[in-house]
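Sample pair:
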Amino acid sequence: MSPSLNARTGAPPLQTEAARPATVPRLNLNEIYRVPIPLAVYPVPTFFPTNPFWLLQFAYNCVYQLLFLSSHPNPHFKGIFSAETRSVHITEEATAKILWQQGFFGKGSLSRSEPTWLNREKRRKGLLAKVTSEEITRKRREERKEFKNERARKEREAIEQRLMEEGKKPTAEDGSKAPERAKFLENGHTTSTTLLNVRGPETTLEDLLASTGISAEGDNEKLGTELNGQLQSTQSNNNNCRAPNKTVRFSTDVTQSQASQIESTPLPLLHNDDHEMAGVIENKEHLQLTLEEAFFLVFGLGVLDVVDPETNIPISTPSLLHLFRNYSHFPPASTLIPQPDDQFMLSYVVYHHFRSLGWVVRSGIKFGVDLLLYNRGPVFSHAEFAVVILPSYSHPYYFGSEVRRDTEAKEKKSWWWLHCVNRVQSQVKKSLLMVYVEVPPPTTDHDIDKGAKHRETSDIVALFKTYKVREVSLKRWIPNRTRD
């Protein structure tokens, strides 16, 4: 409709839509995490059965890849063993990025999962406009919390309305007095002894002061202190009054929802002069690899070299296995005779087993289990399975009286332990997977006098082949769902 037509008809002029804020383009996660492991894979040429020269092309590609191409990085990635944290540190930023994006190995030392401390620091100083994953998670949790509070408020109002309709609760028309609202004077005191009842999480001190005509400017700290003291004295003088639904204590500080909203708003970028004054931010975060992840990258994939922090010399694979087995105990003992049921041996056998099946294996300590299994990775979906590692001594060697007495204590688990673990996993919607590792009998390969830490790599392969893994899926029995 044109402006002249609006003037003739008397219709109000049309308002143009407000310009939408520029949204940050979403990352293509499938493209970023397309490589499942940090190895280069070269495709095989397409098979043409009618082409007689296909075999020559296939042979040429195989010879070319063997001579001129390599699936392993050159040089290998470098990691530093840390005895204090019992982990392997990746200090190079490029290596840490590759290991995370190609297999989700390790975690940031200053982050929950992905190393994002540098981006968060840049955003805090205004050098980055992109919202970090921690801020997105915090905003979602705040929205979920506000949604639950709003739902609880509506349910409470529905119950009150039902009670009024049934006549079980007096209404204002019956002559009952509604709760008296507190009235504030300019000095911050109240003329009523009724405790304030605030409905809804969005009510703040500024809203209440605005409704009473009192300005929040000035000595806010003194005002908040007097209000807190007055509310406490009011509560002690009205013990016979009916308790309200929710009581609050006023404070001049910013609420948690307001703080999260302030943090989630995009920060303006600095100008070139400010950026030059800010300088380059040093990345103080490194990638931490667990002992199982580090040994899998060294022994399973052959892409990592773990160096001694004192000599800066790479540790050989047999010596690294001996070192990790000793540090699986607390306190670590260098003179400890390796046993076939060492904690590191059991956990690494299970870790290697599921990694070879294509699962992304992460630590499950926050859910009270040993490992978590992801289908593609933590950035795509939640973990599907929670793994509990249990040793199994079914070999005839462990049926002796003295040996059996020691193994029964390691195998024995209480019913209450199983119920607690299963209940936690059902609450977080994960399937509990109990993995039993068949422990082989101790042989001369486990004796330190035979030079266990100087064992060859081929002997390590033969050692791991003596272990067997059994999987048992366990679900919580619910009568309403599993009656049949």
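Residues 129 and 266 are 6 Å apart (CA to CA).
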